[in-house]
Design goal:
The complex is a heterodimer. By secondary structure, chain A is of the alpha/beta class. Helix content of chain A is 26%, strand content 34%. By secondary structure, chain B is an alpha+beta fold. Helices cover 21% and strands 39% of the residues of chain B. Classes of the chains: A alpha/beta, B alpha+beta.
Chain lengths: 360, 253
């Protein structure tokens, strides 16, 4: 490129006037562009901070929802043996539920404190997860029934034939289970109906007590017969005798309608019969029998009528008032370990109302 | 020409971001108001509401609920208090016994009067009754509760909180939300609220009321906060943002 001549460059005064003006505009534009950039960055930070606060707020709310849901789910789902720590993954987060025993209350219930920590982090958030913890106390019903006697007849007359044995004295020992060799319980408990027996055939802390009515008996037993007999309520064996189970386990066996128990169907656990249950031919049961109507065989030979229950029997649960006759070859002995084992399969939580709070 | 264009862009952008920042401010005010109230009020128990009108809401809120694990006798109850180390004992205003009907019987007290000892024997006594004490023996304490209590009872340790909508100290042209101990000095923690801001109360029906007679306080099972926050900067023309939040009282249903 050829350099400009003086004539092409023009007079010196023109150059001196135009150069400062052009530089001022450039500097001002650059300054304003910088200011715009700074304002933009600041605005971004404002919006970003607002977004982060909104995300944090949402995370906190979600964590609280998770903790509450976890608490409710744990209380509702636990039946029988339960883990003391459970983690539920829900809605993109976790609920960590811990149940810790506060104390035993009695044979049938314990006090637990259940905590649930909801943990949630929004996938687009780089922050630490939000955590909210809620607590609630609950009574854990250790058993499905609060047994009160070796034989309980909630409705219908009860007759113990001379020669039979009903004993509320605990025949278990601490070798059977840690809770063995427990206190004696009542021999016979009934609703409002008549009971006939020879005192020599019935024993216990008290031979016989009356609760006055079928409803009162159910209340004392804390027993929900409609729940236990609901086909939707899960049991280990429905309509068949237990098989293939560990010899020291206590399965739940349920029959819908009437059922006869023979010596070769003997077993252990919780036996639920929604109709009439008739034990005979040396039938032996180690556990608890719940029946709408418990009706051992009447008449026949000794070996046909004989049966033995080591645990407890509760009859008349349908409230229809059918009578029960325990023949002279029937033996019902209270066995605390068998009763605890048989009824423990349906342990469950009952939240204590108004005892919920959130950790602050 | 270029200078004028760039200047115009700068001014418009500046106004826009000022407006965004102002919107954020009014929303932040409401967010802090609603979150604090919801967190504190959710656990209010039946019988725990002390004052309920349109601008004042005072209530007892559980700080902890203790489980009785070894009641030895009058004024001698071993309990477990969860997260005892984190509890601000100075805030305590009393305790409540959970009666057989499921209601709380409130008693005014202080931690100094209620706390008896935290001897290691407390945890051992409770363990004898089946308590799981692993790693938390320090949470088993002996309380001086004169009411008859039995194994398996629960005891609430509560504080009394007051929330009030009143003329702001920080921004005297607006209302503010104040919080503090019931009957004590309240501290403003949110400002910029309009006079529309107020509390409403539900008494077992879908209808909300702006004030509740003392005889009906125990019926309250939900509260509603209607809050409006505003900013009136002349540069942006001002912004108003309203928010209504319903808070069912978990323990009252």
């Amino acid at each position: 490129m050829n350099p400009l001549t003086k004539a092409e460059m023009g007079p010196p005064g023109d150059r001196q006037d135009s150069e400062p003006e052009a530089g001022f505009a450039l500097a001002l534009v650059v300054l304003l562009l910088f200011a715009i950039a700074v304002a933009g960055a600041t605005g971004y930070q404002v919006v970003h901070s607002e977004w982060r606060m909104a995300v944090q707020s949402t995370e906190g709310q979600t964590a609280l929802g998770l903790s509450r849901a976890g608490l409710q789910r744990f209380m509702a789902e636990q039946v029988g043996v339960f883990a003391d720590t459970v983690t539920y993954s829900m809605n993109g987060g976790d609920a960590i539920v811990v149940a810790r025993k506060i104390s035993d209350i009695d044979d049938f219930s314990s006090l637990y404190l259940v905590s649930s920590e909801g943990v949630y982090s929004d996938p687009v958030s780089a922050q630490l997860p939000a955590r909210r913890t809620v607590y609630q106390y609950a009574v854990h019903k250790e058993t499905s029934v609060d047994w009160v006697a070796a034989v309980t007849q909630s409705s219908g007359a009860l007759t113990i034939e001379s020669g039979a044995r009903v004993d509320g004295g605990d025949i278990s020992t601490t070798l059977d289970c840690p809770d063995g060799n427990g206190p004696d319980i009542v021999g016979l408990a009934r609703g409002g109906n008549a009971v006939t027996f020879d005192p020599d055939d019935v024993d216990g802390s008290t031979d016989s007590i009356s609760y006055g009515s079928h409803a009162s008996v159910l209340t004392a037993l804390d027993l929900s017969w409609s729940t236990l007999t609901d086909p939707a309520f899960p049991v280990d064996f429905q309509g068949v005798w237990a098989s293939g189970v560990a010899v020291d386990s206590f399965p739940v066996v349920r029959f819908t309608g009437n059922k006869i128990g023979y010596g070769w169907t003997s077993g252990r656990g919780l036996l639920i019969v929604t109709g009439t249950f008739e034990p005979q031919w040396g039938f032996t049961w180690n556990g608890v029998i719940l029946a709408a109507h418990f009706s051992p065989m009447v008449g026949g030979a000794i070996w046909e009528r004989a049966f033995t229950i080591r645990g407890a029997v509760i009859s008349g649960l349908d409230g229809l008032g059918a009578s029960t006759f325990i023949n002279s070859n029937g033996v019902i002995d209270y066995h605390r370990c068998n009763v605890i084992g048989a009824t423990g399969a349906h342990g469950h939580f009952r939240p204590i109302g108004n005892s919920w709070w959130e950790s602050m | 020409m270029i200078v004028a264009l760039v200047t115009s862009v700068f001014l418009v952008q500046n106004s826009f971001y000022a407006s965004v920042a102002e919107r954020s401010d009014v929303q932040d005010n409401l967010r802090s108001v609603t979150q604090l109230i919801a967190s504190e009020a959710r656990g209010v128990a039946p019988g725990g509401v002390l004052v309920a009108d349109s601008t004042r809401f005072a209530f007892r809120v559980p700080m902890r609920v203790a489980g009785v694990c070894h009641p030895k006798g009058p004024s001698d109850a071993r309990v477990r208090i969860p997260r005892l180390a984190q509890m601000v004992t100075e805030d305590m205003d009393g305790y409540a016994i959970h009666d057989p009907a499921g209601d709380w019987d409130f008693r005014a007290s202080t931690w100094i009067a209620l706390f008896k000892d935290n001897a290691p024997q407390n945890a051992e006594d409770c363990a004898d009754n089946g308590a799981d004490t692993t790693g938390i023996t320090a949470e088993f304490v002996n309380l001086n509760i004169s009411d008859p209590i039995t194994l398996g009872d629960v005891v609430m340790i509560f504080r009394e909180v007051e929330l009030s909508v009143a003329m702001s100290v920080l921004d005297p042209t607006h209302q503010g939300l104040f919080r503090g101990p019931y009957g004590g000095s309240l501290i403003e923690f949110a400002s910029g609220l309009t006079g529309v801001t107020h509390f409403q109360y539900r008494l077992g029906t879908p209808v909300y009321q702006t004030s509740v007679a003392p005889a009906n306080l125990q019926l309250i099972d939900g509260i509603r906060l209607i809050a409006v926050s505003e900013s009136k900067r002349t540069a942006t023309g001002g912004h108003t943002y309203g928010w209504t939040v319903d808070i069912p009282l978990k323990n009252s249903r």
